[in-house]
Write a structure and sequence with these properties.
The chain is built from 7 helices and 10 strands. It has 221 residues and is of the alpha/beta class. The strands form 2 sheets. Strands 6-7-8-3-9-10 form a 6-stranded mixed sheet, sandwiched between helices. A 4-stranded antiparallel sheet has the order 2-1-4-5, with helices on one face. It is globular and about 55 Å long.
Length: 221
């Protein structure tokens, strides 16, 4: 499903080239749950952003379903994001002018899901995440953990084929973290391919395998 070959990401200054990723070779099969681990600054989020078509590599090959996705037009990338990928961001990226309910509902509107179906799907996730009482609040009225839960709900509500999760439990207390990881495991069992970046060894074990990055290179697969 995902094929990365000799992926580099670097930045050039006047006198030197600084590598964020170097020589990344990675294959992910459809239906896998892969955890990416490594110290801060090892390139984990950059790798996730390249896979999610939010960033471009400086060199190398990247294909999805045997089709190169480098040099895609922006319109095509938007279609991938809308219909194929879901993202859980460390920084939440919630829409400040929208309520909790509206933030979670937004991907379904883009997908053209009928209003009645949207209501049922949002209600289900609000209930599952114990957020029913918060549905009319705006992001700035929520704690960091609550904003994280909204971001996760928004990412998974459309049942994307590929879910990219950057520290999905980073701002949650342990019980919430366990609940989210159980939810991701269930979605994976239903066929969703998941790549998560995490510092939590326990939560990394929810994946089928762990990829370890160090200094921008894969050390252990």
């Amino acid at each position: 499903m995902i094929h990365l070959a000799k992926i580099d990401k670097y930045y050039d200054s006047k006198f030197q080239r600084t590598f964020v990723l170097k020589g990344i070779n990675l294959d992910v099969k459809e239906g896998e749950f892969v955890s990416i681990m490594g110290p801060s600054g090892s390139g984990k989020s950059t790798l996730l952003n390249i896979i999610g078509l939010l960033d471009e590599p400086s060199a190398g090959e990247y294909s999805l379903y045997d089709q190169s996705v480098l040099d895609l037009k922006e319109k095509v990338k938007v279609e991938y994001h809308r219909n194929f990928m879901g993202f859980i961001f460390q920084a939440y990226h919630l829409i400040e002018e929208m309520t909790v309910y509206e933030n979670i509902e937004t991907p379904l509107i883009y997908k053209g899901v009928k209003s009645k179906d949207r209501q049922a799907m949002v209600a289900d996730l609000l209930d599952r995440f114990n957020m029913v009482a918060k549905k009319e609040l705006f992001p700035q009225q929520l704690s960091g953990g609550q904003q994280q839960l909204v971001g996760i709900a928004r990412a998974i509500i459309g049942k994307p084929k590929l879910l990219l999760a950057d520290e999905p439990t980073g701002n949650l207390h342990s019980d919430q973290g366990e609940m989210i990881m159980a939810t991701l495991r269930q979605l994976n069992k239903e066929g969703m391919t998941i790549l998560q970046v995490t510092h939590n060894e326990k939560f990394a074990e929810y994946g089928n395998r762990i990829v370890r990055l160090e200094d921008g290179m894969i050390r252990k697969v």
